[in-house]
Q: What sequence folds into this?
């Protein structure tokens, strides 16, 4: 165990911990300003903003010997007896000098710069900078440079922290960004014909401490102080990156990675980052509709042409319950539920519970699992998975519980349908596109007496449904996903769904007669109690999630 | 003063002094043979350590001590980098050694590599020395022919390759880790230390970086012994336990406003005035001296009264200079404007700053812009205060930068303004009568011409 | 896009490859390779950077990063048959170096860094050439011109460009 002193406060570090001065100071709530240091990149100690005074404390005598010069906190390890002083006059003066140096040539673009409100240079200027400009006044240029499809460089705003260059060399291994020239003429650039095109390109914008690198998708769209930030989980693939969802008045403007040392560290891929657009697509469905019944007995004819009428959500729970009861009264095993890998664990559980309530032998199947390409691992150990849904593992665990280990796939269900035993199906979707099932599959379902489809977009299956129920997108759900590595992460909704959309969980909750508003945590409590695989979820879930296998008994499900 | 027989410059001036034939005829490679025959690598290191040899490249770090920082039982490879990137303004002694006595240098390299168990030596030679390249390469080829290089040198177990590696006109490649980065093929941004090169240097292996003149001294220490080396120079100050003394012969480069600019050999510790008067023929054109750079422009300035300061590793600090540096003395006569001097210095450092760390990158550029404005007649008295603030704050000594280039940029600013303040103030007042007292920021000067 | 024309001859490629055994990494051959190309072509065009990067198994951006740091490798077009570096550091400046450079530029009709229209001469300023005992001096190709005067500078120009 090591004792480190920061500004007179003592902290204890465990033996295995390798922290630098910045991290040690964080532990006592002291923010040492810095630009170039990043926990995920090599240490270069070039910005010189994190300069502090350091020394050692003699454990026996208690005497402190300080080093006579300033040192960067980022390159000073916090070892037993290390002393850091971050608030002395020398330190304050050094910070003010670095700030001033950076501002000499930095165009004061704040009114037109995206980074305003989350800019290190701005923040540090207010906290640590000189009160007035002392350098000559010169007109600033506002040159921009295209880095690639996703990123634009505002050349003169750059503070040469080199984080972006290091990212491309160390994390993605693609080395597209370079520094040109020498000294004060240095700029960031790309080699002509070799633009910034790696699959994590958006991360360089996260890394840029100032507004030099701009995300073309987000540029000029929204001021950061108007947005609220919500912790979430990306639904793009089974990596399950922890993210922050930035929204204003229920419109998502951007996604950013959230630090999670167990999953994505500090990164996320472009596909995930820009994978929120479908939430606000004009093609999104938000009117619950029922196929117009032709025959007088209220049953739907399978040959009925596609005439739909709008229905009210207030009617739906009772009406659907009634329909399901009718179908299931004629025998067991007549109801099928397709549990989408886009649903949360809680929603999957409630759907299964609801299906089995009406039909104790309801057939439960996993929805189609989209797979695109191969898993891709980057030198910085980040993985983009080929499995493009967030919760297959979680849904499978729920299904395994309800089906005694026998998990039926969507294709297997399609093989069952022609036998005619199944009369009704409840299909959950949540896919961000329309082609997750084809016409052939849709026709299989079209022959059913009752087809209920919850989804965001029209698809072949949606078009043949008897009940078309608009469903939610990932940022509108509250609940938990389980990623490829069995990590369960919980989140609350970031935006409300468009009017006319009921989040899936809310509908199941209502049909099941549960009291009050939808409460994902309550459902998770039940899931943790009922399903051994989720027993670790009984306690509060920390922001980085939990590894479900922690409590695994020997021989239990893998 | 008594002038001793040159040792480092002994062969310079002899016809074809750069050939192996002439070098051996004058006793060359005896030291190397002796070391191989009689001493182990550890003993060789101890010998150099005992001699008190301090690096001649500018930092003056004790050479033998630096060699002991190498890990003791490293499986290798260990690299030696010979710093021939001599770019400090005013300095040219390495050039002369390499042009006119390359074998003296090579012998020193071979002995040094033997001591440090380095198996490959890269001689990083600046681009601007094409004659040195040709002569060094020819000398290296001669060594290979005689098995002074290559596998199992002279039947010993020691093998060594020396490769010339050409620089590309960047001063910062003379900084030891800047050199290593350049050698590795990257931009020459110096590394943070720790780790030190002796532990993790070139290609992540233990590396020692030594200057040309330093390794030439090693040759003579091997040849003539530790006692001979210590018989010259200045012993340590008994009052200062950190003073390692200033031993051995030194090559002084003398240039500027003297009658006989040139490279002169003498013991460490002669004064600047002795160098000027007794070696350099005195100030030219019968003028008086005004100021002198004591050890390459990074070291700052001596005023004329300070010409009596000893040129060693100790005394110059006492008159406010950074140190001995490369012992390159550049003399300025009474007609020189200190504004011009400082402008030239700031222009150099702005051009050569590697740009990696904020205080140096921005500070050197800011200083140059102020000097441009001052020289153009738009200076303010406040600029002098700002320049001093830059000078006092940037550098590895206060800890605000990664390497010592910033200190080199800072010292001329500090010395020039502090030692010649009235001259700067007069110039500013005279050339900008209407604006010299302004303290608010002024519009920047837009330079229309040239370099 | 960079044209896919071949700029590096077999001879140049062979010379670069011959340097590989000297270093433990291919990246270390970057600067030597840039010199090989620069010696032969008098510049290092972008196409050459791509080819060097390919030989050294590096991204072109990495080679370009190193190249642009040094500031001495021209990329838009070759420098003159003679490239003359006039020193502007303190020892030469004290003996008229800046003035000699101005004189040469004026006579040749170009600014430092530029090449005469006939491609004969490029003038550059240099930082300390390490020949301070011969100040002011100039390095033209491999020749060091010592103790320059306006007259000797004119003589040099006459030979270099016939002016």
A:
């Amino acid at each position: 165990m090591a004792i480190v002193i920061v500004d007179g406060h003592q902290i204890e570090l465990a033996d295995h911990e390798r922290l630098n001065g910045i991290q040690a100071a964080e532990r006592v709530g002291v923010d040492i300003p810095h630009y170039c240091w990043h926990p995920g990149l090599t240490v270069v100690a070039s910005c010189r903003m994190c300069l502090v005074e350091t020394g050692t404390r003699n454990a026996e005598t208690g005497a402190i010997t300080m080093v006579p010069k300033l040192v960067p906190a980022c390159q000073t390890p916090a070892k037993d007896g290390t002393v850091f002083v971050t608030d002395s006059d020398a330190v304050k003066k050094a910070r003010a000098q670095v700030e001033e140096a950076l501002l000499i040539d930095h165009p004061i673009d704040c009114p037109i710069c995206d980074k305003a409100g989350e800019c290190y240079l701005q923040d540090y200027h207010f906290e640590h900078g000189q009160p007035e400009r002392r350098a000559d006044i010169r007109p600033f240029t506002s040159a921009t440079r295209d880095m690639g499809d996703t990123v634009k460089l505002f050349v003169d705003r750059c503070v040469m922290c080199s984080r972006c260059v290091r990212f491309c060399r160390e994390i993605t291994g693609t080395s597209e960004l370079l520094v040109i020239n020498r000294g004060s003429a240095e700029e960031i650039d790309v080699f002509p014909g070799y633009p910034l095109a790696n699959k994590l390109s958006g991360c360089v914008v996260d890394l840029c401490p100032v507004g030099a690198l701009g995300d073309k998708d987000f540029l000029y769209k929204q001021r950061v102080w108007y947005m609220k930030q919500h912790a979430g989980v990306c639904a793009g693939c089974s990596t399950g990156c922890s993210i922050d969802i930035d929204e204003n008045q229920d419109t998502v403007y951007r996604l950013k990675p959230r630090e999670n040392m167990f999953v994505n560290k500090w990164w996320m891929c472009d596909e995930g980052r820009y994978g929120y657009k479908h939430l606000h697509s004009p093609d999104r469905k938000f009117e619950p509709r029922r196929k117009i019944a032709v025959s007088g007995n209220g049953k739907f004819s399978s040959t009925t042409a596609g005439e739909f009428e709008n229905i009210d959500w207030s009617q739906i729970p009772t009406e659907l319950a009634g329909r399901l009861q009718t179908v299931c009264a004629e025998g067991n095993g007549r109801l099928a539920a397709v549990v989408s890998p886009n649903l949360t664990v809680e929603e999957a559980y409630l759907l299964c519970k609801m299906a089995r309530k009406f039909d104790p032998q309801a057939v439960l199947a996993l929805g189609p699992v989209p797979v695109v390409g191969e898993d891709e691992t980057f030198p910085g150990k980040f993985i983009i998975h080929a499995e493009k849904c967030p919760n297959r593992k979680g849904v499978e665990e729920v299904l395994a519980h309800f089906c005694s280990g026998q998990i039926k796939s969507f294709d297997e269900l399609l093989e069952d349908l022609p036998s005619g035993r199944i009369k009704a199906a409840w299909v959950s979707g949540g896919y961000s596109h329309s082609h997750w099932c084809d016409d052939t599959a849709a026709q299989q379902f079209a022959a059913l007496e009752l087809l209920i489809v919850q989804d965001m977009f029209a698809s072949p299956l949606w078009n043949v449904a008897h009940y078309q129920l608009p469903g939610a997108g990932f940022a509108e759900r509250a609940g938990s996903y389980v990623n490829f590595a069995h990590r369960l992460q919980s989140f609350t909704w970031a935006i409300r769904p468009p009017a006319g959309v009921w989040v899936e969980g809310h509908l199941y909750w209502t049909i099941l007669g549960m009291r009050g508003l939808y409460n994902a945590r309550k459902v998770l409590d039940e899931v943790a109690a009922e399903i051994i695989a989720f027993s670790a979820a009984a306690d509060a879930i920390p922001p980085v999630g939990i590894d479900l296998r922690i409590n695994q008994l020997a021989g239990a499900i893998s | 003063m008594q002038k001793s027989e040159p040792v480092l410059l002994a062969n310079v001036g002899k016809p074809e002094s750069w050939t192996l034939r002439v070098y051996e005829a004058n006793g060359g490679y005896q030291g190397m043979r002796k070391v191989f025959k009689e001493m182990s690598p550890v003993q060789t290191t101890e010998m150099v350590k005992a001699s008190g040899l301090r690096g001649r490249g500018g930092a003056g770090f004790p050479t033998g001590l630096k060699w002991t920082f190498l890990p003791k039982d490293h499986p290798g490879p260990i690299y030696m980098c010979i710093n021939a990137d001599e770019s400090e303004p005013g300095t040219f002694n390495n050039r002369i050694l390499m042009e006119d006595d390359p074998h003296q240098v090579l012998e020193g390299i071979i002995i040094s590599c033997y001591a440090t168990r380095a198996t490959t030596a890269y001689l990083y030679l600046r681009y601007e020395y094409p004659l040195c390249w040709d002569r060094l390469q020819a000398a290296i080829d001669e060594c290979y022919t005689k098995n002074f290089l290559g596998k199992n040198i002279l039947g010993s177990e020691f093998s060594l390759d020396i490769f010339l590696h050409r620089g590309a006109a960047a001063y910062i490649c003379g900084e030891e880790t800047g050199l290593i980065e350049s050698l590795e093929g990257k931009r020459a941004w110096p590394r943070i230390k720790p780790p030190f090169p002796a532990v993790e240097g070139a290609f992540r292996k233990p590396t020692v970086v030594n200057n040309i003149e330093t390794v030439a001294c090693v040759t003579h220490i091997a040849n003539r012994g530790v006692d001979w080396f210590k018989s010259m120079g200045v012993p340590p100050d008994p009052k200062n336990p950190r003073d390692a003394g200033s031993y051995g012969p030194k090559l002084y480069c003398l240039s500027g406003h003297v009658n006989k600019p040139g490279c002169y050999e003498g013991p460490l510790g002669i004064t600047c005035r002795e160098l000027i008067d007794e070696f350099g023929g005195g100030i030219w054109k019968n003028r008086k001296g005004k100021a002198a750079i004591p050890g390459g422009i990074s070291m700052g300035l001596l005023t004329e009264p300070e010409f009596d300061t000893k040129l060693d590793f100790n005394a110059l600090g006492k008159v406010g200079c950074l140190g001995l540096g490369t012992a390159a003395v550049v003399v300025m006569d009474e007609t020189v404007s200190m504004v011009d001097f400082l402008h030239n210095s700031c222009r150099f450092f702005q051009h050569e700053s590697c740009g990696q760390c904020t205080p140096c990158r921005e500070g050197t550029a800011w200083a140059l812009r102020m000097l441009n404005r001052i020289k153009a007649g738009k200076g303010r008295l406040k600029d002098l205060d700002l320049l001093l603030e830059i000078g006092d704050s940037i550098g590895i000594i206060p800890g605000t930068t990664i390497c010592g280039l910033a200190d080199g940029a800072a010292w001329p600013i500090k010395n020039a303004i502090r030692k010649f303040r009235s001259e700067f103030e007069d110039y500013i007042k005279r050339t900008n009568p209407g604006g010299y007292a302004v303290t608010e920021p002024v519009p920047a000067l837009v330079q229309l011409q040239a370099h | 896009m960079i044209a896919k024309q071949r700029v590096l001859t077999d001879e140049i490629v062979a010379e670069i490859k011959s340097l590989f055994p000297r270093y433990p990494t291919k990246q270390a051959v970057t600067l030597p390779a840039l010199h090989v190309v620069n010696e032969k072509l008098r510049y290092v065009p972008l196409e050459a950077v791509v080819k060097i990067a390919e030989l050294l198994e590096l991204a072109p951006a990495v080679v370009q990063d190193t190249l642009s740091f040094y500031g001495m490798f021209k990329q838009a077009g070759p420098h003159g048959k003679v490239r003359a570096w006039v020193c502007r550091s303190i020892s030469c400046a004290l003996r008229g170096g800046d003035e000699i450079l101005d004189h040469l530029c004026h006579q040749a009709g170009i600014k430092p860094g530029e090449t005469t229209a006939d491609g004969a001469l490029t003038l550059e300023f240099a930082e300390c050439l390490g020949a301070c005992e011969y100040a002011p001096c100039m390095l033209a190709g491999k020749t060091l011109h010592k103790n320059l005067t306006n007259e000797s500078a004119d003589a040099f120009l006459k030979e270099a460009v016939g002016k």
Q: What stands out?
A: Residues 357 and 512 of chain A are 8 Å apart (CA to CA).
